[in-house]
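anyone seen this seq b4? input:
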Amino acid sequence: MEYKSEFYILNKFCEFKNRGTESAFMEYEKTASLNIARSMILLMGFVFAIFAISDYYFYGYGRSFIISLVLRAIALLIVIIVFFLSCSFKHYNHTLIMFSLAELMVFAIYLINLYNLNANQPSLQFMSLIIYLLAVFLIPNLWKNCLIVSCIILAGYIIFSAVFVTHPETPTLRQRGIYLGICLVSCAILLYGRESFRRRQYATEKHLEFMSITDRLTNIYNRGRFEYTLGLWIKNIRHDPFCLLLFDIDNFKKVNDHFGHSAGDQVLISTTKIVSTHIRDNDIFARWGGEEFVVLFSDVDIEQAAILGERLRRAVEDNYCGDAGKVTISIGITQYRRPETILDFVNRADEKMYEAKKTGKNCIVVADHPVESVNNNIYVN
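predicted toks r here
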């Protein structure tokens, strides 16, 4: 659960270098942007279809106009299909790639329609292409996707105009290329800044979230997060049966008195690390306060919890903690009994932990259920 700033470093394409972080961010963006992106891609299709009115105005009714209607209807159909398919992808970046492909297909139909109409309105084409480029950057998408699509659109338009348009034009093809290039670069810079800001904002939110649920010294869950998780477990029976282990580092005050608080901090950090390596991924480990820690074991009864607790006790006993040398822990274990409260559950484990202290320390006291002793360090009452 350790927070690492290198997880949030951006590469030159304005993506997180860490794949796990990038994947998490894309899911975050999916929640925030998918509906907007779907609506805007659909709007783009309808606007493209409505331009059939200008085709009729400039070129009149005829065979070319009928073909134009068919082409625009095909473009609208493609957009509608994309609109409905966009919710079916598991990964949001695949959805965004589909949006980009749809934009390119609509643009290809646009060029085919220009050829079909033998269009001779360069100013209108120029303005419509600027609008299309703006739409590409306005529809929520990855910066690199927008840049690739817009570069293909610009190159495709210039090549089409150079090959198929032969009559004199105002503005000239070079002028239009320059203006469109300026529009592309400006939009790309703005979108890059926006995407960079969004990702840095996401990294900041994650850092603040981490700080709010984490103990600053040991980098494990804090008491507030533990109580919240325990509350969820109590409401949801899918973790049943589950047990609580509460342990205290023996003679910790002596460590601070003899070696100083920095040595005490090292004991806490070292003990936390060794316990973290000996629990399961679905177990919850948190600092309860001072030198006291708690572990929630899911899907285990009291007998299994006692065995897991003994494994932790031995691991800590064998661990070396810097200047303080080796330390031991006293453990209390109990199993949750519905419908008791969080306070009753924790208090029972706390009582057993203090009994372990009185028994002689470096041992486990297990509550409520008969347990066959793993060794002499486990007591049942």
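The two ends are 35 Å apart (CA to CA). Residues 370-375 have pLDDT under 50 and may be disordered. kinda curious what u guys think
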